[in-house]
UniProtKB/TrEMBL annotation:
GO CC annotation, single: cytosol
Family label: Belongs to the ThiD family.
EC number: 2.7.1.49, 2.7.4.7
Catalytic activity: 4-amino-2-methyl-5-(phosphooxymethyl)pyrimidine + ATP = 4-amino-2-methyl-5-(diphosphooxymethyl)pyrimidine + ADP; 4-amino-5-hydroxymethyl-2-methylpyrimidine + ATP = 4-amino-2-methyl-5-(phosphooxymethyl)pyrimidine + ADP + H(+)
Protein name (record): Hydroxymethylpyrimidine/phosphomethylpyrimidine kinase
Organism: Hungatella hathewayi WAL-18680
GO MF annotation: an example: ATP binding
Pfam families named in the record: Phos_pyr_kin
Domain (Pyridoxamine kinase/Phosphomethylpyrimidine kinase) ranges: 12-255
Keywords tagged on the record: ATP-binding, Kinase, Nucleotide-binding, Thiamine biosynthesis, Transferase
Keyword check for Lipid metabolism: no
Keyword ATP-binding: yes
Highest rank taxon of the organism: Bacteria
Amino acid sequence: MMKRVLTIAGSDCSGGAGIQADLKTFSAHGVFGMSVIVAVVAENTSRVIDIQDITPAMIASQIDAVFEDIGVDAVKVGMLSTPACMTAVADKLKQYRPPHVVIDPVMYAKNGCPLMESDAVSSLITTILPLADVLTPNIPEAEEITGMTISSVADMEAAARRISRMGCRAVIVKGGHSSGNALDVLFDGTEIQHFETERIHTKNTHGTGCTFSSAIAAQLALGAAVPEATARAKAYVTTAIRHALPLGKGNGPTHHFYDLYRHGLPEFEREGDFS
């Protein structure tokens, strides 16, 4: 049976991040994607215009609808902007206990606009973080969670260890905001592992965090262990960034289906141009 993966996140009307990026990523990995929308974000590649939160009751009803019928092999959790939203999601995850939970603690949009209320970080730490099989903060998010200043790989390792002690089973501190090669640090509660690729110099990175965490969730649903899922997800998002789409006036979206279009659907080829 096809594996089933649920994203619980915000909707990005421009299609590059959030629910839309997650569903594209699931499809690219050959799993069946489902969604629970927790907020509607009016954003594009340049700015966030407005945010409307979905009520906690409606969030809970959406989760019930998915679990009582189709079922879930893995869950990816993204944007959770308020403590009430976090409580609703946490209660349902505790009720249904999905096999794998990947949590991307989304705090800011690519342009720096906050997507989480300023007083919600403490709720994230106490309510959501302990439910994570894998937590995927970038450096600014890891700094918010730990109170640390992160300026080196050693700091990333220390932050991963500190976050792990807060209750999640594995932590990946992403190095996209650092300099040099793109290096991510995984701590699984026992050992540190590094995942490194060349840094691709492009402004078109809208939705990379959503895509990476969704790819990990898909790989876990397909049976990969956390290190293997991390390596495969990093390879996938690196390809998506390398062939990112120059759409919009700001940070354009990544190309979620580059490999599929290139190798699987030749009828979509247009003189070899997939940029």
